[in-house]
Amino acid sequence: MTSSTSTIRFGRLAASAFTRDIQASFAFYRDVLGFQTVFQNGDPVGFMILVKDQAELHLSLLRDHKPSTANIAHLIVDDVDALHDVLVAAGVRIIKSLADKDYGLRAFVFADPDGNRIDVGQPMAPVAEAALHVERRRAPGSTFRNVGLADTVFEDVNLGGARFSDVNLAGARLENVNLSGVTIDNANIEGLTIFGIDIHALVQESLKRGG
């Protein structure tokens, strides 16, 4: 039997976590991660829906819960290093250390008080040698390291705090881009233009003046 879902609109899909103590679990997600409860039921409470921004998590009471060694959820954030620091400071158990992954995320895995494992990640810079067109994207704090971005066009992109290190930016164009706090180390910037200004030419002219 075959079926098509092309005309069916899917609604929310939320992760679920079992807990031996639902109030203690809620306190962790509220106080450490900033979640708030938007729904609960049971007397005593046996189920909660927690939300923060676009993230949603369902807590269900299970007195004899035994945690899985697999991740129960994957969370994407815009500052994975900062969240990692928050969790470490709170004494949360880190299952897999923070690192740049070969699948394009900077990520780590932590366990909540019941041992439920959550994989947290932040997209890294796209790795490519061919020209790209990156537009309408938030990438604050991203690290572009050892990648070829020659002739890439960044348009309507938030690069606040991004770092370019050992990167080929020859011929790249940045248009309507937030560059607050951006650093560029050991990069080929020949032909790089920002808001239509040839940055390489400006650097060369500054060097000639001894600036």
Automatic annotation (TrEMBL):
InterPro entries: 5peptide_repeat, Bleomycin-R, Glyas_Bleomycin-R_OHBP_Dase, Glyas_Fos-R_dOase_dom, VOC_core. GO terms for biological process: response to antibiotic. The keyword Iron-sulfur does not apply. The keyword Lyase applies. It comes from the Bacteria. GO terms for molecular function: lyase activity. Pfam families: Glyoxalase, Pentapeptide. Residues 9-123 form the VOC domain. PANTHER family: BLR0126 PROTEIN, BLR2520 PROTEIN. This is Bleomycin resistance protein. It comes from Caulobacter vibrioides OR37. The lineage of its organism: Bacteria, Pseudomonadati, Pseudomonadota, Alphaproteobacteria, Caulobacterales.
